[in-house]
Amino acid sequence: MNPKTRGFSLIELSIALLIITLLLGSGTMALSGQMSVRQHRQMQKDFENIKEALYGYALVNGKLPCVLDSNGHENCAVQYGYLPFATLGVAQKDVYGNAIRYFVHSAFSKEFTLTTGSKNDDAVRKTLPDIWDSANGNKIAVGVVAVFWTEGQSGKVYRSTDEQTNNENNLKFIYRAPSNDFDDEIQWLSPFVLKAKMLAAQKLP
After folding, report:
1. Alpha-carbon separation of residue 1 from 5, 9, 13, 194 (angstroms)
2. pTM for the structure as a whole
3. What is the pLDDT along the chain (205 residues), one digit of tens a residue?
4. Separation of alpha carbons 110 and 183, rounded Å
5. Can you tell me whether residue 130 is helix, strand or coil?
6. Residue among 48, 169, 153, 182 nearest 103 (CA)
7. Phi/psi at 53 (nearest 5 deg)?
8. Which DSSP helix (H) or strand (E) runs through 74?
9. How far apart are CA 104 and CA 132, in angstroms?
10. Which residues neighbour 132 within 8 Å (Cβ) at sequence distance 6 or greater?
11. Cα–Cα distance measured from residue 182 to residue 131, given in angstroms and rounded to the nearest whole number
12. Which residues, at least 6 apart from 29, have a Cβ–Cβ distance to it below 8 Å?
């Protein structure tokens, strides 16, 4: 056989295929990583819009909106449910297709005053939820008035105690950086920020 016209050996072909496979794999991983970053940024943007919409609703109505119940009706008799997206004019679901969950304390889904939930109002103050850095960790926000969150890309497959805690309706919510066992997105409203905005707009009795 003429050396100039010989074909590739099986070893050479195997090496070439291995290189192509590695290149394709690394490209797919890079693309997947970029998509995850974009999705996370979009979700953060959507959540900031929701927070602003909640503040805006309170400024106009003197209270926060009630939750949507499992039948899709605004229900002020319960504190846990889903975000009233149509009322607020915001997204119904996160970028992964999960409905956005919502908690609002009953004392703040009706007209409230400057002293509602204050140190002189133990009946409300002691029943406001807290935000923790893990299920067995430390509090990072005490006595919030509203919380909204989603289960992230993993959906309702709870991979850790922290993810499960966010859906136990026990006045305890977990907020921490995304990891292999936690990808919930969560935000909350501080009573002090809410009241300060309403005072500045002269909307709080």
Report:
1. 8, 14, 19, 85
2. 0.81
3. 455 555 557 777 777 777 777 766 655 555 545 557 787 788 889 999 999 999 999 999 999 999 999 999 999 999 999 999 999 999 999 999 999 999 999 999 999 999 999 989 999 999 999 999 999 999 999 999 999 999 988 887 888 999 999 999 999 999 999 899 999 999 999 999 999 999 999 988 8
4. 32
5. strand
6. 169
7. -65, -40
8. strand 74-75
9. 17
10. 138, 139, 140, 165, 172, 173, 174, 175
11. 15
12. none
Structure tokens at 128: 């406001």
Q: From the CB of residue 47, how many other CB atoms can be counted at a distance below 10 Å?
A: 20
What burial letters (b/e) apply to 67-91, b meaning 16+ CB within 10 Å?
A: bbeeeeeebeebbbbbbbbeebebb
* Residues 6+ away with beta carbon under 8 Å from 47: 148, 185, 187
The residue type of 125 is R
- Region of residue 194 (left: phi > 0; alpha: psi -120 to 50; beta: else): alpha
